Input
Amino acid sequence: MRALSIASTGMLAQQTNVEVIANNLANMNTTGFKQQRAEFADLLYQNIQTPGSQTSDQGTYAPNGIQLGAGVRTASVYRVTTQGDLKSTGNPYDVAIQGAGFFRVQQADGTDAYTRSGNFSLSPQGQLVTQDGLVIQPGIAIPQNTIGVTINAQGQVNATVAGSTTAQTVGQLELTRFPNEGGLNAIGNNLYLETPGSGSPQAGVPGSTGYGTIQQGFLETSNVNSVDEITALITAQRAYEMNSKVVSAADQMLQAAARLGS
Amino acid sequence: MDNSLLVSLSHQLASYRAMDVIANNIANASTPGFKREAAKFEEYVTMMRPAEGQTGLQAVSFVKDAGVMRDTGQGNIEQTGATYDVAIAGPGYFAVQTPTGLRYTRDGHFSLDNNGNLVTSQGLQVQGDGGAITITPNDGEISIAPDGTISSVVNGIGNQLAKLKVVEFPSPSTLVKQGANLYSTTQTPTTSTNVNLRQGALEASNVQPVIEISHMIEVMRAYEATASLSKSQEDLMRQAIDKLGQMPS
Output
């Protein structure tokens, strides 16, 4: 009896669905987090009678055929890369990207990672770093005795040092974009890695064609919509229950078959 | 051999088949573009020799699979917000290129690959009017019009990039399911003229859980009834053997 295994693929798929929704809800307040969605696809079909097969030599054809499905599988869990809302924080080192692009940071092993989470701080050496201490690339050092830092929409970082009335340019934030943002590999800590699926990184100045702009004093919130997620959770839970009903119905039918010989 | 047991058996096998189809519908209740199916049965009439007191051949009907009918009705349009998710409202299929030729799908969850080509979640290229559709990051915000036109606005200048190919078939129910939300066919597709697409949405499956569950209960009860019929037939036979086997002393 196939119904048992078909229903179990349905239960597994809905389980994945609930896990994805749970992760979205858990990251509702994560800066720069992008909502994920599970997408499903039907499994292979067994053709008992192929649709459109000839049923006589008079040229009559079966309008339907008999194709038996084997259930469902998770085809992909993809990120919805829409812009999150910008939230004002007032912190001069909080920067949000409005539009496309990622900040590039250097990991401990020297390789590059990418993030949209712009809640930066200063390292003991005055370098602009993420909350995990990873240095923003290209490196930007804020001089000592700085009394004010402004970052404009094009990513230019200007610092005013105590005793001086004019601001000096101390660095330039760069944005990196990919042909396919959805192909980036999320490694946690709001970081993404380049993959063959994402295509090669292309660095550019914020505000130039195809790149987003920088907003100082703001953070990009996650683009998770709690109402959507809760609705999806209810749907997934009901679908799971229905699949389990199929399991018990198939079980009852098999029990009835087993009773025949007694 | 007594036919009643074989008739019951044919119904029980048919019930298994019906149950499998219902299970597949419920398992795919969240599969975008999935179309629900229903098992259809037909009578298979054969002649048996007359019982005592009857004259002429007697007809006996077995149950036989006639087909699995696909309900190609429209599924709900669900908002996802993703730029490259496209739902078809009304008839039509997207064309995608696979290593074994063109396949068709109503699952409009697309994304870009590393070269900027519009692809399905299996990485198969979605076909536009001029073959594969390529979108570069320089194109900026992409919008997909209801007729499938993909365009973008860069620095205030709008430009048309491609047009999604949506095709129709003379007989949609004979498209062969390939799994992975794809259909194959030998029919010649015609390009749809009256296309209605929605960007940022997916077509949900048209499985209606309430209907599937009530069908399931129906199938299960019918199966149990047949099973008890077989049981009583078997008892009858056993009794006949017992009684007839008692030798007069």
